[in-house]
Amino acid sequence: MHKIHIADKEFEILLDNDNISKRIRLIGIQMNVDYESRCPVFIGVLNGSFLFMADLIREIEIPCEIGFIRVSSYEGTESSGAIKQAFGLPENLHNRDVIIVEDIVDTGFTLTHILKEVQKQQPASVKVCTLLFKPTALKAEIEELEYVGFEIGNEFVVGYGLDYDGLGRNLKDIYRAKM
Ligand code: 5GP
Ligand code: MG
Ligand code: MG
C-alpha cells in the first residue's frame, strides 16, 4: 500500500519496514561496539519511540538498562515550541552512559529540554539516537546527536510509532504527508 488517508490528510510511503529494520540492525551493530563493557541506559521518549526502541533493543547484545520518559510539544503538524515537563526520568543516571532514543528530531527543542534534565544528574556520557532527523528544521544545536537512522526533508511523517493527532502509530512503514 503506497498511499493512505488519515483523518483529513493523504500520505505516501517514504520508508518501508524492511528498509527501517536494516538500518536499525546497523545502528545496533555500531552500539554493540561503542558501548562494549559499559552497560548503557537507554531512555526512550514516549510515545513516538516505542516501536523503534523495541526493535533497536533487540539488536543490542551487551548488558543494558531500558527506561522511558514522556514529553510532548506537538499539536497537529507544527511544533509549538512550548515544551511541557518531562516525566519519569530515572533518578540513578550519575556516572552512567545514557542513550536517549527518539523517534524524530525536528526543531530539536524537545531534546534540548531532555538533555538539560539528564545532565543535572551528571552522567558519564550522553548520546542521542534518533530514527529520523530533519536537518533543515533544526533550530537548536545538539552535539549529542550520534546515531541517526534517516535524514528526511522538512515534511510531516507518520507511522512506525509516529502519529497524526493520535492516529497512525501502528503502521509498519513510514509515510509522508502529500503536499
Ligand atoms: P522537536 O522538539 O524536535 O521540534 O520535535 C520533536 C517531537 O515532535 C518528536 O519527538 C515528535 O514527537 C514530534 N514530531 C516532529 N516532527 C514530526 C513529524 O514529522 N511527524 C510526527 N508525527 N511527529 C513529529
Ligand atoms: Mg519524540
Ligand atoms: Mg505526536
Offer a quick outline of the entry.
The protein has 179 residues and is an alpha/beta fold.
Explained architecture:
With 179 residues, the protein is α/β, with parallel strands linked by helices. The protein has a single domain, classed as 3-Layer(aba) Sandwich (Rossmann fold). It is 21% helix and 32% strand. The chain is built from three helices and eleven strands, in the order ββαβαββββαββββ. Strands 4-3-7-8-9 form a five-stranded parallel sheet, sandwiched between helices. A hairpin with a 2-residue loop joins β5 and β6. The mean pLDDT is 93. It binds guanosine-5'-monophosphate (5GP) and magnesium ion (2 copies). One magnesium ion binds next to β7. The site of guanosine-5'-monophosphate (5GP) has 20 residues, from β7, α3 and β10.
